[in-house]
Amino acid sequence: MSRFRVAIALIAAVLAGCSTIPRFEAANDIHAFLVSIRDGDRPTFDQHVDKPALKSNLKARLMTESRHSDVLAGVGAFLAGPLVDIAVDAAARPEVFRLVAADYGYDPGKPLPSTLAIAGLVKPLDGGRACVVTRKGGPCSFIFKNEQGAWRLIDFQGHIGLDKGRLRLTE
């Protein structure tokens, strides 16, 4: 009977290890993404952002939200495409994400979270995607997708607005 328990434990450990591998792979790329934000490294930042997917997801979200507002429904439907294109192009830069990180409590004087800590905030999703929360038990804030071996930002689930003339992304 004890061999049976050992075998079950080994199988469970192997299966658990398989499910965590994507979390650590994603966490490695998310860490590189954070380093690129901290260092203002645009080429590395661009490697970790899928701008067409991000634009598409934000457009769809803006269209959905504009339908819930009678006043903005027509205007939102008309302007959503061009405005989202401009906003995503303007916001998809390391400098802007550094401001976003500050909104989440990041202080440039603090070290970045380790890959292991980031892995604890990554939730695997279907379709080669991963949700990143900004705190344990929090809602999904950022969605990354594994695209040919690199995890790239494809969506943001928090609030999008303008605050004091700059794009503000909050939970």
Description:
There is one protein chain. This protein is α+β, with helices and mostly antiparallel strands and 171 residues long. The protein has a domain at 17-49 and 92-170. Helix content is 57%, strand content 20%. The chain has helices at 2-39, 42-47, 51-67, 70-91, 94-103, 115-119, and strands spanning 122-125, 129-133, 140-147, 150-156, 159-163, 166-170. The longest helix has 38 residues, at 2-39. The radius of gyration is 19 Å and the shape is globular. Mean pLDDT is 76; it is low at 6-19 and 162-168.
Q: Which short descriptors sum up this protein?
A:
single chain, two-stranded antiparallel ribbon, 171 residues, alpha+beta, four-stranded antiparallel sheet
The percent of residues in helical segments reads 55-70%
Number of strands: 6
SSE series: HHHHHHEEEEEE
Q: State the distance separating the first and last CA atoms.
A: 50 Å
The oligomeric state is: single chain
Low-confidence stretches: 6-19, 162-168
Instruction: State the helix count.
Output: 6
The order of strands across the largest sheet is 1-2-3-4
The Rg value, from CA coordinates, equals 19 Å
Biggest sheet, open or closed, and with what strands and sense?
4 strands, antiparallel
Derived from helix and strand composition plus strand pairing, the structural class reads alpha+beta
Mean pLDDT: 76
C-alpha geometry: globular
Our estimate of the beta-strand percent is 15-25%
